Amino acid sequence: MRCMTGRRIQIHLTTEQWRRLEERRRREKRTHSDLVGEALDAYLAYRVDAAAALDSTFGALPRLEALNRDAWDRI
After folding, report:
1. Are the C-beta atoms of 21 and 32 separated by less than 8 Å?
2. What are the structural domain ranges in the chain?
3. What is the pLDDT tens value at each position of the chain, 75 positions in all?
4. ∠ CA 14-17-20 to the nearest 5 degrees?
5. Spatial separation of the C-alpha atoms in residues 10 and 66, rounded to whole Å
């Protein structure tokens, strides 16, 4: 269970989000705030390394023919 000394907020969920959250709450026998807090922690911890993302796609389309600069200028 999460620490209850934090701040209280109000959020609006879609009917589908509420249904899925409630289903998980019952299945895991946890509180709504515990599940939402865990999801928020995961979201805030997610970072994209732009350089690594570009490096991982380098050469992914080796046969791609790109227009040269003159062709782009004519478009």
Report:
1. yes
2. 12-54
3. 556 678 899 999 999 999 999 999 999 999 999 999 999 999 999 888 888 888 888 888 888 888 888 888 887
4. 150
5. 49
